[in-house]
Amino acid sequence: MRDITVEELKQRIENGEQLNVIDVREPAEYAEYNIGGKLIPLGQIMGMQFDEIEDLKDEELIIHCHAGKRSMQACMVLEQVGFSNTVNVVGGVMAWKEKYGNEQIK
């Protein structure tokens, strides 16, 4: 697992990179505010219910949550089952919202 700041993530988005961004918060949190990542709640990951990303085991997965703790857990679980390139967003959507407001990933 590596870490990425919201500034680094934003720069990569602006550079036009195709990124696999996963949001591991709960559906209600996602509905309230999200930056456009794919929603797969941590509970699903802990329960090994992540079929929709199974084919991304060798690709970079940028994982975020509210503040960075759940995403770190998700990275660890995914690494244990063979995902080789997980990246934790430091500060999560709290840091994103503080820096960029309601701007979303395109």
Kindly describe this structure.
It contains five helices and five strands, in the order E-H-E-H-E-H-E-H-E-H. With 106 residues, the chain is of the alpha/beta class. It has a five-stranded parallel beta sheet with strand order 1-5-4-2-3. The radius of gyration is 13 Å and the shape is globular.
Q: Shape, please?
A: globular
> How many DSSP H or I helices?
5
Low-confidence residue ranges: none
How far apart the termini lie comes to 24 Å
Give the strand order of the largest sheet, numbering strands 1, 2, ... along the chain: 1-5-4-2-3
Largest pleated sheet: 5 strands, parallel
Mean pLDDT across residues: 95
The value of Rg in angstroms is 13 Å
**Helix percentage range:** 25-40%
Oligomerization = single chain
Report strand %. 15-25%
Structural class comes to alpha/beta
Give descriptors for this structure.
globular, 39% helix, alpha/beta, five-stranded parallel sheet, 106 residues
List the helices and strands and how they pair.
Blueprint: E1 2-4, H1 6-14, E2 21-23, H2 27-32, E3 38-39, H3 42-46, E4 61-64, H4 69-80, E5 86-89, H5 92-100
Parallel strand pairs: 1-5, 2-3, 2-4, 4-5
Summarize the structure.
The chain has 106 residues and is of the alpha/beta class. It has five helices and five strands.
